[in-house]
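haha ok so turns out i had the wrong file open the whole time. this is the CORRECT one, sorry everyone. sequence first:
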Amino acid sequence: MRVGYQNLRKKLEGVLSSDELDALPRRWQILGDLLLVKIDGLEDQLDAIGEAFLTLYPWVKGVAVDRGVHGKLREPDIKVIAGKLDETIHRENGCIFKLDPTKIIFSPGNLKERMRTAELGRGEVVVDMFAGIGYFSIQMAKHARPCKIHSIELNPISFSYLLENIRLNHVEDIIQPISGDCGLLTPVGVADRVIMGYLDGMDYLGAAIKAIKREGGILHYHEAVPACLSPDRPVNRIRAACSSLGRECEINEVRKVKKYAPGVLHVVVDALIT
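then structure:
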């Protein structure tokens, strides 16, 4: 049986008040044998909620509240409320990801976009500017089989998991991992396709455009944007960056990936850069 809100509510009846039961989360994320959940308020009941999750998911060894990410290194703000959280193995779309969710992020809301990207780039040279633990790079290498993926990551912990996941998925022949700042280390004029999966990456648009071959290539630009400014803001930022570098762009598509926050969307712009 699929576990959902009603199962969680029933488990906590008699422990939480009616108002507290109504405030319980409606969704959560399971990574391997760990469970992450966003909870607004209910601070006095977190222990009880955590134990309820452990009962509902007997194979889960740890439960934590996900309070988002912070800083340039995209470090998660996690509070363990039941059991223990440490390294786990998460499987997605035929790929293996080793990670520690207390140290690095893995967003469930990006699943469809990761699966879509996994089918792109066959035979191409790809640059993944914010590779993390290999969210896009690993799946693309496994399924689309590009000629080469330059996977760049600044966070040293994420980079160590990227190296491990490259090995676990046997894609050493495709992925070239690069440790450091993509603003400084992105190769110039080599890419048929560039992935910018960081939602606050507008300052790196110049490096992304310079990476694309003069004969042209595709840019996948992700941004968190107020709904009232979508799609104009990300599109205009790409156009302005291209103009400043003497390049042309054609917008192929703008897609909503998910709601990022109240009134804020995570969107991705696919643009042909020439």
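The first strand starts at residue 29 and ends at 31.
again sry for the mixup
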